[in-house]
Amino acid sequence: SNKDSDSQNYAAKNVKRPSDSDVQQLYDCSFIDIGIEDEMKELELIKMMINVCIKMGRHATARGILKKAKKSISMMDFANWSGELGDWSKALKIYQSINAPLPYVIHSLSNLNRYDDILKYEEQFKAMNENEKMQVIDDFFWPYYFKKDKHNVDEIVKIFEKNWTLPRLVIVIFISIDSQNYSHAQELIDLSYKMLAKQSSQYIAGDQNQIEDDQDIAEILVECQEVLNYKMNKSSSGQTTSFFSRRVKHFKRSRSICE
Question: In terms of CB atoms within 10 Å, which of 7, 33, 50, 241 comes out highest?
Answer without folding.
Answer: 50
